[in-house]
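seq as requested:
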Amino acid sequence: MNFLRFAARRLAEMAATLLGASFVIFGAMYLAPGNPASFLLSGRSASPDALKAINDQYHLDDPFAVQYLRWLGRVLQGDFGRSITYRTDVSRLLADRLPSTLLLVAMALVLVVVVGLLLGRLGAVRGGAADATILVTTTFAVGTPSFVAAVLLQGLFAVKLGWFPTSGTGDGLGDMLWHLTLPAVALALYLIGMLARVTRAAMLEILTQEHVTVARSRGMTERQVISRHVFRNALGTVLTTGGLIVSTLLICTVLVESAFSVGGIGQLLELSTTTKDFPTVQAISLIMVGLFMTVNLVVDLLHPLVDPRVTLGSRRSAV
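struct tokens:
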């Protein structure tokens, strides 16, 4: 029952936050410099009647409150409006492009979790030269922005060696995975270094605690101590970075998709921002906020299962 009450409360908070975020997103677009009508006219002069027709079609002259409430009502029905740039429904644009972005983010997330946890655990347990090598490697990874990693990987493995495609998403699942391999690595590199360092620091702290010494004195093997008492307890701290990891992936995918010409919502967001395509920018921004909040909700619900010392509604601070 406590779990259900906590989940219901977090869902209510999520809905309220999304409502506030929708107001901020719509307001930011409303106050942004420039006018969508100027893009529709492609720089050509227009008669007052033609300009009025455009403003009436897209309701650009309505008061802010009227525009916001009309937009919010459509969004609640799954209608994000009509793209000014592409002259089609925003929902259709998102349906065509969202799968590529979700697959790219999922591939990058798998790389971050598997490689980051493995390197962090290896560095904490092995120590010595292995730990030093991992520290140097993760320092390099953390210091490499995603767009720099994208350029380097594309130049070496796609252009020079020809092992991977230089751009696009391919056709079919297998081809898509092949096309998105380099973008996923570029997207994950920074976060792999960050997660490895967080995991290493958390495990080193737990290794010095009394219950680890007691477990060793009872005759448990070192592997059992690491798995049951060190690594598992460290996962609680690592889990608190889940929201940060996903938010970083969503933000950096804009740069990576542009570098590799991946037809996802990241590249669509960049193009829509440039052309003042307000409905598309608003829809993508709201979706990204919703995804980020969903991940935070999942992290909150999983945290007590990973670390029994944490109760619902509380979190340990990350190392």
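The CA atoms of residues 171 and 179 lie 9 Å apart.
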